[in-house]
Amino acid sequence: MGQGKTTAIVTGGARGIGAAIARRLACDGMAVGVVDLTKEACAATVAAITGAGGSAVAVGADVADEAAVARAVGTVTEVLGPPTVLVNNAGIIRDNLLFKMDVADWDAVVAVHLRGAFLMSKAVQGHMVDARFGRIVNLSSTSALGNRGQANYAAAKAGLQGFTKTLAIELGRYGVTVNAIAPGFIETDMTAATAERMGVDFDELKKLAVERIPVGRAGQPEDIAHAAAFLASPGAGFVSGQVIYVAGGPAA
Ligand code: NAP
User: Where does the Ketoreductase domain lie (predicted)?
Assistant: First the structure.
């Protein structure tokens, strides 16, 4: 199953941006390992892909757990073939002002974003080096530039940019490119959770966000999927170590 196709892994593929990226890569002809905390959570994304004639497998794994990551990459390799595209998208927020942020909230955010991307990239890179081809796409954020209430998240997302540039330098000689996408305001459960935390209606938060977005609308998961599809494509082989802000305007 899936042999001859490029195999991709998308973490956090159960919903939001990850689900849109998984569906888009499948549309572009890739077999997709959809990884999220539970296998059950990935079912809808996998059904959307297979229902449209594509190949996908659901895999439950916490990306911050080394053994679970090894098992997940093993399953995808067995079922779909060795992965040569990896999208590190899994993410959480635990927002609070510094004086109220507890250590557990710091550790959880850094673990999912940074340790998760590190473990996944380390587990998959051998397949990419063997194939002399690979594409790693990391999900950063405009919050990497600083955002009130997000010291943990901003630090992790800025850290991912340094991680991206370093892997690009190390892996370039093997035909592997490594880039980051830094989305602005995208309509997902994550931004809905932000509205809830702030005690404002989601539509109100969206309205406030859109007022500051030059293209005059909120981003959709498909906007990010489009950028990811480009970076994951064979033709993007001379683009590496870049951070692409997909925010409806300049980010800074
Ligand atoms: P989302 O709707 O909350 O989806 C994130 C997915 O990741 C969820 O299915 C979540 O599972 C999963 N996940 C969380 N921790 C995980 C772990 N340890 N292992 C495996 N999967 C895990 O978020 P989103 O808005 O689509 O965001 C996707 C990525 O884009 C994140 O990295 C986020 O930081 C980044 N981003 C989003 C925005 C935005 O405006 N939405 C802006 C900039 C950057 P559970 O549902 O079970 O937690």
Answer: 6-184
